[in-house]
Amino acid sequence: MRRWRLKLLTAVSVSVLAVLSLLSTGFAGTLSSPLLARAEQGGTILSGAPTYDWWYGCSPTSAGMMVGYYDRKGYGGLSYSNLVRGGVAESTTFGISAWSALAQSAIASSGHVSHYYVSGYDASGDDLAGRTVAEYDSLADFMGTSQDSYGNRNGMTTFFYYTDGSAFTAKDSLDYGIQDKDGAYGIWEYLNYAGYAVSLSSVYTQHIFGEDYANGFTFADYKAEIDAGRVVMIQVTGHSMFGYGYGDNDTVYFYNTWDDQEHTMTWGGTYSEMDQWGVVCFTPEGGSAVPLPPSILLFGFGFAGIGWCGRFRRK
């Protein structure tokens, strides 16, 4: 992952491949419901969080788990079922063959791989000409992953953050004219490509709170995201991961893109010798109403009929 600073702005490159080496990376409701979350001692873990195997970049894979979660679960009582096209996003891509999962194509499509990932992991200078923005159809496309023109080696994505710890939004990226290089802006582009008019200010990268980052993202902020039903991309040095819960003692629950097991780390600490430095967050917008099941519709019509009957008799 590569990080760039503004305000000073900083860019970070992120990308880690499986158990191998370091890459540069770069639903609101009643959470007591077992359908939405399960309680952890002193915390909350969102239920139904998908776990996806590393697929041509840790950052698009982690972003893929974020959109896969909302595709499967919705947010704020609304449906976001087109975030992963072609059907319902899988709960996992581990143990299945390549290109057999809808989520894989949402993360990095065959068109992306054939043009930007020609020579394998960590290679550069291998991009093929001919793929236009109009043909982009995956997170890795929009996030600039593996694209030589943005200085990203294969598997790498770049993110930007403010050095005072303030949130660096997709709008900021656009205002600075660096949107094509910014992985978080690319997430915003993908959300809109999927048909959801998400505001530029609702997608952001933020450094975590610390001595030099007085306005940084705190563990309390992370808990608030989870309690609101929103998942979070966890950024550590050179790698992106998928956060979906928290527990006592500043514990973060996440999937690491390398296996399908639940992992934990201490907020602001280290995982596999990689220090946490930031997060990427977004709030889904533009969802559609969830159709009522037929039985509920029938129940509703029944009440309507009884009501009309009662009024008729009183006349």
Mean pLDDT: 87
| Number of helical stretches of at least 4 residues | 8
Q: What coarse outline follows from CA principal-axis ratios? A: globular
- Give the percentage of residues in beta strands: 15-25%
The description of the largest β-sheet is: 10 strands, antiparallel
Q: Tally the beta strands.
A: 15
Q: If you compute it from the alpha carbons, what radius of gyration comes out, rounded to the nearest whole angstrom?
A: 21 Å
- What is the N-to-C order of secondary-structure elements (H for helix, E for strand)? EEEEHEHHHEEHHEHEEEEEEEH
Number of domain modules: 1
Uncertain runs: 16-24, 26-35, 296-315
**Helical residues, percent:** 25-40%
Structural class: alpha+beta
Cα-to-Cα separation, first versus last residue: 74 Å
